[in-house]
Design brief:
Layout lengths: L1 E7 L6 H9 L6 E7 L6 H7 L3 E4 L3 H10 L5 E5 L3 E2 L4 H11 L4 E8 L4 H17 L10 E5 H6 L11 H10 L4 E11 L2 H6 L1 H17 L20
């Protein structure tokens, strides 16, 4: 069985879209665990209506860990609430994951935007480096598939890290298991965070975070203001 873990906080605008994508998947042997950090909107009611298991969450790292503790599957797929999946996403992902004998994997990210420039920026600054450097400097965000034993072996996500805890998680896991970027399918992602902060500010923030992680290690200081909350901007 596959366990899908989704951390949430006030995601009534985006969670239904993801859960509907999961409902339409050709692969059906999975459970969905929503780790909710105290939503005050309809997030929990939506999760209940789709038959999800709901656990108490927190910031994303804590939510993922809480969800993983309740997972029944040998494989865990961590997804952000605002992603969109092709209808054959799970089938293609699992087939390739097993065929390549991977222990942990992530995905190229395709922005949900009609602007070609957004796709070019994502490819140049994220997708191409992600694939080129996968054997030397592993990264992963918004979608991470991992074997449960490996998640447990590294102690899950480090809840003390302030930003890029997902990248650190993948890097730690890749030291003990085989990591790869899934080639046969992709994740479609919202631009809501970038619309909120701006392209330049977002780029500078994550570039600095990347350099800090490379030379000093995980970011456990409040170098950036991070707020785990919903964004109302439309794609």
């Amino acid at each position: 069985m596959l366990s899908i873990v989704i951390p949430t906080l006030n995601e009534e605008d985006y969670l239904p879209r993801l859960l509907e994508c999961l409902r339409r998947q050709s692969f059906r042997n999975f459970e969905v665990i929503v780790a909710d950090a105290g939503s005050t909107d309809e997030t929990r009611e939506i999760a209940n209506a789709f038959g999800c298991k709901i656990v108490e969450g927190g910031l994303p790292a804590k939510g993922r860990n809480q969800g993983a503790r309740q997972a029944k599957g040998d494989l865990i797929l961590f997804l952000d609430a605002d992603v969109v999946l092709p209808k054959d996403f799970l089938e293609k992902t699992l087939k390739e994951f097993k065929g390549r004998d991977l222990d942990i994997a992530t995905f190229s990210l395709i922005p949900l935007s009609k602007k070609k420039g957004a796709k070019v920026i994502f490819n140049f600054f994220y997708n191409y480096p992600l694939r080129i450097l996968q054997d030397k400097w592993a990264h992963g965000a918004m979608g991470i598939l991992v074997k449960k034993w490996l998640h447990q072996k590294i102690g899950g996500f480090d809840e003390k890290i302030k930003i890029a805890e997902d990248h650190h998680y993948v890097q730690q896991a890749s030291k003990l298991g085989k990591f790869g970027v899934i080639r046969g399918t992709k994740l479609f992602v919202s631009l809501r965070r970038i619309k909120k902060e701006g392209w330049v500010r977002t780029g500078l923030k994550y570039s600095f975070a990347e350099l800090y992680m490379k030379f000093k290690g995980p970011i456990r200081k409040e170098l950036f203001q991070y707020k785990f909350n919903h964004y109302k901007e439309e794609d």
